[in-house]
């Protein structure tokens, strides 16, 4: 009920579409639309969920297309249940039993997927209004910075947390995403993810099963029937999860129950430096997405749960209409001491970086 009340307030604010960011209401409470543009790459955002709502760049013939799924109005984003384009947290992915113990204290969270918690709970970071701290759409590095103060006890998580997400256009068709979080008074788990749904053929081009992907990971974290990690790892070799060499997304998807929704253990280990995570290539359009990150994991998700979702321009999104590349800490890390820690303290802040490179240069022979 609490989530419904919050959403109704912003639906009324933006019933006719995206709200204007000017006016007498405090800027940080406005829901607006913002654009960054550099060369022939343009990206639009809303501060509802610090969300990417469009990304446009040309194909091999110079034809522009929007390659991310989304909606036409803010009302549709507030009603969204698929986290389309948003920042998810305080803890992305799942925590088993919606509970954990930290420093001897047991915390019970707000379950929103059966007995488990997914992407931060009933009202996660994808369902709040972020403050626009900086916005500059000119110069060599156009950028926008969103901030959010997550209160102690929000969705059951301990401690006040100050979160910052920066989107910056760099070089030739590059999008840098930097996430930071500072625990203000208590240790707390933090694991943010960017949940854009990508389709390099264009958001309205159909499914992504013929697009090729390479994932720089030799292992996955095994999960149970509820997609909660068991704490064990498994090699991808000889399985449908093996994308160490580029393969079509749909080449072995029929061997899985509904599609891909698994955390990959990225090669290169844990560290602050960027390492390659994935490369996606759409042969028809020639578009390429290269992703690197300093995060240890990558959730590869083929939008299995999308069904009859009315998107931009009235186009209807169905299963496998896009893929998500969610760099992250490992799911349920708070309950698995053998996973890299996701605990943030006042003395140990959270830093998570991603770099997306877009081009039409074939990344590998196929």
UniProtKB/TrEMBL annotation:
Beta-D-galactose binds at residues 93-94, 195-197, 261. It catalyses: alpha-D-glucose = beta-D-glucose. Pathway: Carbohydrate metabolism; hexose metabolism. NCBIfam families: PRK11055.1. Belongs to the aldose epimerase family. This is Aldose 1-epimerase. InterPro entries: Aldose_1-epimerase, Aldose_1/G6P_1-epimerase, Gal_mutarotase_sf_dom, Galactose_mutarotase-like, GH-type_carb-bd. Residues 1-23 form the signal peptide. CDD domains: galactose_mutarotase_like. Keywords: Carbohydrate metabolism, Isomerase, Signal. Transmembrane segments: none annotated. GO terms for molecular function: aldose 1-epimerase activity; carbohydrate binding. Its EC number is 5.1.3.3. One of its GO terms (biological process) is glucose metabolic process.
